[in-house]
Amino acid sequence: MRRQNCSECPGYDLLGGKIRDRIRLYWSHCATWRINHPDWYTPPITDLDGVKAIGREVREKKFTALKTNIFTYDAGRPRGWRPGSARPLRPRSMSTARCCATLRTHLEAIRDGAGPDIDILLDLNFNAKTEGYLKILRAIADLDMFWVEIDSFNPEALGAKVRTRSHPVKRCWACANSCLISASRRWMSRSSTRHGTEVWQSMKIASAAEAYEVNVAPHNFYGHLCTMMNAHFSAAVAEFADHGDRYRPVCRGITSFSLTCQRSRTAILIMRAARLGTEPNEEALRAHPPEGQCRAF
C-alpha cells in the first residue's frame, strides 16, 4: 500500500476526516459595504429602496440567508452606527431609542425585499454594552432573527443577554476574540460560540463545545484562503452551525482558481484536493498592494 504524503492530503483529512460535503453560506455584510464603501461595492445604497433591492438580490441569487449590521437613518439616508470602532466617536454603553427604531426600520426593509424564507442574521459587534444590547434585543423581539452576533469580553454579561426572555433570538454568538481553549471554556455554558483563531485551537474549542452541547461557527474576515480554511474546519467538526461566511472581495483572481468552481449560491462544496484545494496567486497579490489605512467596516 502506498503511503500518502501529508502534503497531498486535503485539509479535512488532517483534521480527522470530513463528516459533511456541503457548507451552507450566508451573504455577509449584506447592504453594509454598499452603504459604507459605495466606491468599492456597487450599486451604492443611499436609501431604504436600495436596502430592499439588495434583499431581493439575495433571494434572486439563491442565497438562503444574509447578515447585516447596525444602521441609523438621517433624512432617509443610511449611516453606519459603529461607536465600538469610534464611528461615530461617542460612548458605546447605551443604544438610544432612535438607534433602536432605525435599526428596526433597516431590518424590516431587508425582510421586505428578501421575503419570508430568507434567514436574517444581525451582527452588533462591540457597539454597545449590556444595557444597550438588551435595548436592541427588545426592540427587534418580534422580527425572528436567525441569530444575533454579540461581541463581548465578559461571559457573565453575555449570559445576562442570553437569559433575557423578551426576544426570540435563536442564537447568541460570542467568543470570536478568544483564541485559546483555556479562554474559550468560560463561554461554553453561556452561548453558542463563534471563533476566529488558528485551526488546531479551533478543533480543540469545537471538541469542548461538543461536551457542552453548543454549536460552533468559523469567523472569516480575510478572503478566499481563509474561506477554504474555514470550509475544511467546518467539514470536520461535529457541533457545527449550518452557516459559513461569504464575503465579496475587492480584488479577484488572488487564488489559483475561481471560488465559484467549488461554490454554489447556497453552499461551498467540499471537494477532494490536496491541502486547501487552492493556492495564492503571487502575481495578483503583488498587483494589489495595501493602500492607506485598513478599515474593517
Q: What descriptive keywords fit this protein?
A:
32% helix, 297 residues, 6-stranded parallel sheet, alpha/beta, two-stranded antiparallel sheet, globular, TIM Barrel
Describe the model:
With 297 residues, this protein is α/β, with parallel strands linked by helices. The chain has one domain (6-286): TIM Barrel (Alpha-Beta Barrel), CATH 3.20.20.120. Helices cover 32% and strands 13% of the residues. The chain has ten helices and ten strands. The protein has helices at residues 11-14, 32-36, 48-60, 97-114, 130-139, 155-163, 181-184, 199-211, 224-236, 282-286; strands spanning 22-24, 65-68, 71-74, 77-80, 119-125, 147-150, 172-174, 192-195, 216-218, 267-269. The strands form three sheets. The chain has a six-stranded parallel sheet with strand order 2-5-6-7-8-9. Strand 6, helix 6 and strand 7 (172-174) form a beta-alpha-beta unit. The relative contact order is 0.15. The model is unreliable at 176-184, 247-251 and 258-264 (pLDDT under 50).
Q: Helices and strands in order, then pairings?
A:
Layout: H1 11-14, E1 22-24, H2 32-36, H3 48-60, E2 65-68, E3 71-74, E4 77-80, H4 97-114, E5 119-125, H5 130-139, E6 147-150, H6 155-163, E7 172-174, H7 181-184, E8 192-195, H8 199-211, E9 216-218, H9 224-236, E10 267-269, H10 282-286
Parallel strand pairs: 2-5, 5-6, 6-7, 7-8, 8-9
Antiparallel strand pairs: 1-10, 3-4
What would you say about this model in short?
The chain is of the alpha/beta class. The protein has ten helices and ten strands. It has a single domain, classed as TIM Barrel (Alpha-Beta Barrel).
